[in-house]
Specification:
By secondary structure, the chain is an alpha+beta fold. The protein folds into two domains: about 100 residues, no CATH class; about 110 residues, no CATH class. Helix content is about 45%, strand content about 15%. It has six helices and eight strands; from the N terminus they run E-E-E-E-E-E-H-E-E-H-H-H-H-H. A six-stranded mixed beta sheet has the order 5-4-1-7-8-6, with no helix packed on it. Strands 2-3 form a two-stranded antiparallel sheet. Helix 1 packs across helix 2, helix 3 crosses helix 4 and helix 3 packs across helix 5. About 25% of the residues are buried. The chain binds zinc ion. Zinc ion binds next to strand 5. The site of zinc ion has 8 residues, from strand 5.
Length: about 230
């Protein structure tokens, strides 16, 4: 049977009350309820009062300890910057954590191997992605200097990480994304942009100074190569 899951909010509200003991639940204290808007209790009045908190970070341990526990209280804290609640661990039975730890220890090697294989696959996928990105750059900027499309693609891929689930399909690359990557590359490698800092100029000013040079180079790279019969 699936373990019943319950949200526990480190509340961002000021005026919550426990439905059992009627004590006020202060800002940042644990509120056990479906949402912050629904009725709920303080932590002491909840079923989780004797449960230990398992911190996040070990996916297998999290999953398995939940499976072995009668109840699972998911601790959520408000992230003001991201404007959302985020997991801070889970309250599960102590015995469930012990069982899960044993299971994890038993198949640690198998899981390590699986993770290693997955990492290798990711590296390969990244290589395919970079290759396709480079091809797309070459398509839009046919006069870009030889092999430079790979430098641009590599750099752009490092910069914009979080590439989970992206498809390695060159046709899916957005023209705007390619333009931005090429523009950044030209700015740093084809102009004196980087050497202008620290001379009392603002970034905006420096960017505006080199704007024309960047546009000109972009235009040059965009031009189709004219095939010569005498090459
Ligand atoms: Zn209470």
């Amino acid at each position: 049977m699936a373990t019943e899951s319950q949200n526990i909010y480190l509340t961002k509200k000021q005026k919550l009350k426990c439905q059992k003991c009627y004590a006020p639940i202060l800002l940042g204290a644990a509120f056990v309820g479906e949402t912050e808007k629904s009725k709920g209790t303080c932590f002491t009045c909840s079923d989780f009062v004797d449960y230990p908190l398992l911190p996040p970070g070990n996916a297998a341990l999290t999953r398995r300890s939940k499976k072995h526990s009668a109840l699972c209280g998911v601790l959520l804290a408000w992230n003001q910057r991201r404007k959302r609640f985020e997991r801070k661990g889970q309250y599960v039975e102590a015995i469930a954590i012990e069982k899960a730890k044993l299971e994890c220890a038993a198949d640690q090697k198998t899981r390590d191997l699986k993770n290693e294989k997955a990492a290798v696959v990711r590296v390969k996928q990244d290589a395919v992605y970079i290759e396709n990105f480079a091809l797309a750059i070459r398509e839009f900027y046919p006069s870009c200097p030889v092999k430079r499309e790979f430098d641009i693609a590599k750099h752009a891929c490092e910069k914009y990480s979080g590439r989970v689930g992206r498809t390695a399909n060159a046709k899916k690359f957005d023209k705007h994304m390619i333009d931005l990557a090429v523009e950044a590359h030209i700015r740093h490698l084809e102009t004196n942009y980087d050497s202008q800092f620290g001379k009392g100029k603002r970034k905006k000013e420096i960017r505006s100074d080199i704007k024309f040079d960047v546009s000109r180079t972009m235009m040059k790279w965009r031009q189709k190569k004219i095939l010569s019969l005498f090459d």
